[in-house]
Amino acid sequence: MARRKKGRDVHGWLVVDKPLGVSSAQVVAKARWALQAKKAGHAGTLDPEATGVLAIAFGEATKTVPYITDALKCYRFTVRWGEATNTDDAEGEVIETSEARPSEDDIRAVLPEFTGEIMQVPPQFSAVKVEGERAYALARGGEILELEARPLWVESLDLVETPDADTAVFEMVCGKGGYVRSIARDLGRRLGCLGHVIQLRRVLSGPFGEEDAISFETLDEWRHNPRAEKQLLPVSTGLDDIPALAVTAAMAAHLKQGRAVPATGVDLSYGDEAWASFEGTPVAVGTVKGGLLHPSRVFNLIGTGETDVDHC
After folding, report:
1. Which CATH architecture does the domain made up of 242-298 adopt?
2. N or C: which end of the chain has fewer CB within 10 A?
3. What pLDDT does 147 receive?
4. CATH code 2.30.130.10 region(s) in the chain
5. Where are the alpha helices (DSSP H) in the chain?
6. Where does CATH 3.30.2350.10 sit in the chain?
């Protein structure tokens, strides 16, 4: 018999401003503790040495995590020129140095090469799997890895400022699977001066921005605040990037049972993905085929007190 999870049924999204030196898993654990929630997960890992937007899904919101993971993200990061490290950030050992330093014009001239659909080789110290093992585990053992380049969509890469000759601050908007450390490494190589990341902050993750975030320390206050749960963003926030289809109570009942319903009232084509909404509450996510919305993921939010369609 499976062990029953401890905690309360909590549903929604919480954005935490992850501090330096704390892992993403530690933030999720603290958030679960604060809300005494049964289930929680995050949408996109941040390294311990990175800060910023970490979106945490509770309960039924975890079913929308893939949509946030696939969404565009924005990072602000600082590169130090003149040194390459084995981790491509300040935590690693310096493996090569250069006296060259790029001008602002030099930097701006190469940025178009790093936008659009590019191929990127992950850092040696990354979570990429190599024959079933994490790259960072093999790298720590002294192995030099030949990692394959992977496609990455870079929406934009801009030079924000150059505080001094040794450093430059950038802002990048990119798709899923991007490594900022690789961008810094490759920029340094392209400019002939070498480089690595010394500061990294995520400022946007899909629909979640810095303005939505609470501090890590605030979670301590939430533990004893019965109103804390009311401050969560709704489950539907994770579905902002796909169309919503309003359904009736009867249609909602059909979807909950896995049956398709008419996809009317919204301009949807064959193969489009949409989410069904009953009075603003997510019922299901599905794909349109033959004018019907076929559910692929059903939410257990209706009938829990928020909305009741059990009479249908």
Report:
1. Roll (2.30)
2. N
3. 64
4. 242-298
5. 24-35, 65-69, 104-110, 135-140, 180-191, 218-222, 249-256
6. 12-71+207-235, 73-204
Q: Which of 305, 255, 304, 303 is nearest to 277 (CA)?
A: 255
Mean pLDDT of 215-222: 94
DSSP state, 230?
A: G
- Which residues have C-beta within 8 Å of that of residue 270, sequence separation ≥ 6? 288, 289, 290
Whole-number Å distance between alpha carbons of 73 and 169: 17
pLDDT at residue 125, rounded to an integer = 55
d(CA 279, CA 293) in angstroms, rounded, equals 18
pLDDT band at 124 (very low <50, low <70, confident <90, very high): low
Distance of CA 212 to the CA centre of its chain: 14
Phi, psi (rounded to 5 degrees) for 111: -60, -35
How far is it, in rounded angstroms, from Cα 191 to Cα 228? 49
Q: What is the pLDDT of residues 219-272, one digit of tens each?
A: 999 988 888 889 999 999 999 989 999 999 999 999 999 999 999 878 889 999
Phi, psi dihedrals of residue 146, rounded to the nearest 5°: -105, 85
Catalytic residues: 47
State the Cα–Cα distance between residues 169 and 199, nearest whole angstrom.
9
CATH class entry, domain 12-71+207-235: alpha beta
C-beta of residue 67 within 8 angstroms of C-beta of residue 59: no
Distance CA 33, CA 53 (A): 19
Per DSSP, what are the bridge partners of residue 15? 55
Q: What is the pTM of this model?
A: 0.88
- With a cut of 90, say whether residue 138 has pLDDT above it: no
Q: Is 61 helix (H, G, I), strand (E, B) or coil?
A: helix
Query: What is the assigned CATH class of domain 73-204?
Result: alpha beta
Tell me which of 27-36, 79-88, 123-132 is least confident: 123-132
